[in-house]
Amino acid sequence: MTVMDGNDKKKVVEFVQYLISNPNLKAETPVIREGMIITFITSNLRQLKKTLGSKRFFPHLSPDRVISEILLVLKQMSLGYLMPRIEVWLKNEIDYAVLEELFPLRGAQAGLGQNRYRSMLQEYLTLVLAYSEVRYNFNSVVNIFTYRALDRYLREVFHRRRFIFNEIRRVERLDLDCDEYIEYAKILFLIKNSVFMRVMLSSGSGKRKANINEAQQLSMSMPEFVMKLARSIKEGLPFLSEKAVVTAIKSNFRERQTGMKEASARLFHIIGSRYQDYKHHGRIDRAAESLDKSWFNIARSNSRFYGFNEKMVNELYLIAGDNMW
Questions:
Q1: For 66, how many CA atoms within 13 A lie in the half-sphere containing its CB?
Q2: DSSP label at 57?
Q3: Alpha-carbon distance 3 to 226, whole Å?
Q4: What confidence tens digit (pLDDT) does each residue in 295-325 have?
Q5: How far apart are CA 133 and CA 129, in angstroms?
Q6: What whole-number distance in Å separates Cα of residue 201 and Cα of residue 220?
Q7: pTM
Q8: pLDDT (tens digit per residue) in 157-205
Q9: How far apart are CA 163 and CA 319, in angstroms?
Q10: What is the tens place of the pLDDT at every residue in 28-44?
Q11: How many CA atoms does the CB half-sphere of 64 hold within 13 Å?
Q12: Which of 3, 17, 22, 188 is the most exposed, having the fewest neighbouring CB atoms within 10 Å of its CB?
């Protein structure tokens, strides 16, 4: 097999840049671009292999080798976009004093200080972001941290003390004040996309590795998926409680897949969904409906279709409207 040299790798980068120059991709973040290009490659694999093997591109290389290099370039672009942001969040956006109160280090980790939380989170996120599906769905986390969505919405929830507040406090029985709950939510959002990792599950044809999408498509046991994934997350982040880990996992589930006492999972599912495709447009004309209000208005009209809790979406709609978000 011919070895890919430096010139070939340069041509691969140029080919990726050509793909990204598509008007439908230029306005997207690197992680969304990566996901869209992977979908394009998967959907057009036979024709793409033929194109890449032509004289114009890489006639001396295996098309599979070229595609592998394309995917690697896309991955590096996404990680180059995500990792510096994550480092800033872990340094400046997490209140480790609150985190230490919520999840005290135990056993061999006890007494290692607040920097231990940061290093464990950094190591864990580096591990899970090796998966392209995790990177793609991390777009919501980027937007949530960039535009301080948790601080804004959760402070309003705790100030108003209406349906969402009652579900969190009286039904879920989370005895946290507003600042504690915001830090709790930040950590869960950082790990919620772990569901796109693959864990070993039982299927009709034996055992195989699957992420949340594959497990649902193959009608695998979701309780088994939650249990296996929770165990995997706890190995990397042993300070987290089992409840917190399960909440993070189930924040990717539709409402009917959550239990009555899992209010935070249902709330985070809505917020995460809202910010996955969010595009910030700066100031909104006074006559125009604000971005979040418009999105929540559509979501509350189609809450059953999206798997959202209707009362939660309605409250978020009112909060967005009152604040012109």
A1: 26
A2: S
A3: 42
A4: 999 999 999 999 999 999 999 999 999 999 9
A5: 8
A6: 7
A7: 0.93
A8: 999 999 999 999 999 999 999 999 999 999 999 999 999 999 999 877 7
A9: 12
A10: 999 999 999 999 999 99
A11: 1
A12: 3
Q: Identify residue 315 by its one-letter amino acid code.
A: E
Note the pLDDT tens digit of each residue in 254-296: 999 999 999 999 999 999 999 999 998 766 556 568 999 999 9
- H-helix segments, the chain: 6-20, 23-26, 30-43, 45-52, 63-88, 96-102, 114-128, 132-137, 139-146, 149-160, 163-166, 178-191, 212-217, 222-236, 242-250, 263-276, 291-301, 303-306, 310-323
CA distances from 194 to 29, 117, 210, 268 (A): 20, 18, 12, 14
Q: Count CB neighbours of 42 within 10 A.
A: 9
The token pair that represents 99 in the structure block: 């985190």
Crossing angle of helices 45-52/30-43, nearest 10°?
90
What's 237's DSSP letter? -
Question: Does the pLDDT at position 108 exceed 80?
Answer: no
Residue 5: predicted pLDDT: 84
Q: Report the half-sphere exposure of 33 (CA within 13 A, side-chain side).
A: 25
**In which element (H, E) is residue 32 found?**
helix 30-43
Does position 110 have pLDDT exceeding 70, yes or no?
Answer: no
Give yes or no for a contact between 308 and 269, defined as CB atoms under 8 angstroms apart.
yes
Count of CB atoms situated within 10 Å of the CB of 257: 16
